[in-house]
Amino acid sequence: MSDVIEGLAVHAPKSLRLFLDSLEVMADIGFHDFEVGTPQRLFVSVEVWVAIDRLPREDEEVHAWNYDRLRTTVVELAAARRYNLQEIFVQAIFDRIASMAGVDALRVRSVKPDIYPDAEGVGVEVSSFGGTWPE
C-alpha cells in the first residue's frame, strides 16, 4: 500500500530557515551617560533562510550549516567595541552573516531586556525583506 493518496499534491520543502534564538550577550551599548562603560544584557536572535538546495540530503555533520558560526559572530561583535546604538550593532551582525555563503534572506533582532520594568525589552530588528517573511 502506498503512502501517497491519488489526486493530492505531494508537498516538498520550499524554504530552509535556521535560527539562533535569544542568545544572551553583554555589550557596552547605549548613549546615555549611565550606559557608557557599563555593559548591558542583550538578547540577540538571528534567522537565516538558506537556499532549499542546501537542505541536507544525508544525516551527516558535513552537510550541516553550523550554528557555531552564528553564535560566534554575535559574541565576537558584542565584545569587539562599544556601540551607541542597537541599530549599528544589529547592522554589524547583519553585514557579517549576509556575507556567508548560501544566505538567501536574513533577519537580526537585538533586545535590551533591562530598560523598563514594565516592558520585556526594547529593541531593533533588521531584515533583508519587507514584511514578516521573505517572498
Can you put this structure into words, describing what you see?
The chain is an alpha+beta fold and 135 residues long. The chain has one domain (16-127): GTP Cyclohydrolase I, domain 2. The chain contains two helices and four strands. Strands 1-2-3-4 form a four-stranded antiparallel sheet, covered by helices on one side. The protein is elongated, with a radius of gyration of 19 Å. The protein starts with 15 loop residues before the first strand and ends in an 8-residue tail after the last strand.
Main attributes of the structure:
single chain, 135 residues, alpha+beta, GTP Cyclohydrolase I, domain 2, 4-stranded antiparallel beta sheet, 4 strands, 20% helix, elongated
Strand residue content: 25-35%
Q: What is the β-strand count?
A: 4
Strand line-up of the largest beta sheet: 1-2-3-4
| Secondary-structure element order, N to C | EEHHEE
User: What is the 3D form?
Assistant: elongated
CATH class: Alpha Beta
Oligomer: single chain
CATH architecture: 2-Layer Sandwich
Structural class: alpha+beta
Fold-level CATH name:
GTP Cyclohydrolase I, domain 2
DSSP summary: helix tally: 2
Mean pLDDT figure: 90
- Helix amount, in percent? 10-25%
Q: What is the C-alpha radius of gyration, as a whole number of Å?
A: 19 Å
Q: Could you name the CATH homologous superfamily?
A: GTP cyclohydrolase I, C-terminal domain/NADPH-dependent 7-cyano-7-deazaguanine reductase, N-terminal domain
